[in-house]
Write a structure and sequence with these properties.
- The structure is a single chain.
- By secondary structure, this protein is an all-alpha fold.
- The chain contains 3 helices and no strands.
- The two termini are 43 Å apart.
Length: 91
């Protein structure tokens, strides 16, 4: 607890001593850093999804047609709900 409190106090003092321009610049840097992190996370999720599709398509070649379709529908449902949650839409 003590370490976090000290960090917070240091940040508050640092912010109090900054000029408006310095604060604006720091906020912009923080915003850009967060945007970069979001982009990297998104790219990682897309890459993982591509790998899953590649693995599932390789495995699905071995399955009968009906079972393959059932698996595709089952995989689509969680993805749709996650996309809806992310965009704020509901079914």
């Amino acid at each position: 607890f003590g370490y976090r409190a000290n960090v917070t106090v240091r940040q508050q003092r640092s912010t109090a001593n900054q000029t408006e321009e310095e604060r604006t610049a720091a906020n912009e840097q923080r915003r850009q850093r967060m945007a970069q992190m979001r982009a990297e996370r998104c790219a990682a999720r897309l890459e993982e999804a591509r790998l899953r599709v590649r693995q599932s398509s390789a495995a699905s070649d071995l399955l009968p047609l009906e079972e393959n379709e059932r698996m595709r529908v089952a995989e689509r449902r969680p993805q749709e709900t996650e996309d809806q949650r992310r965009t704020g839409l509901s079914a």
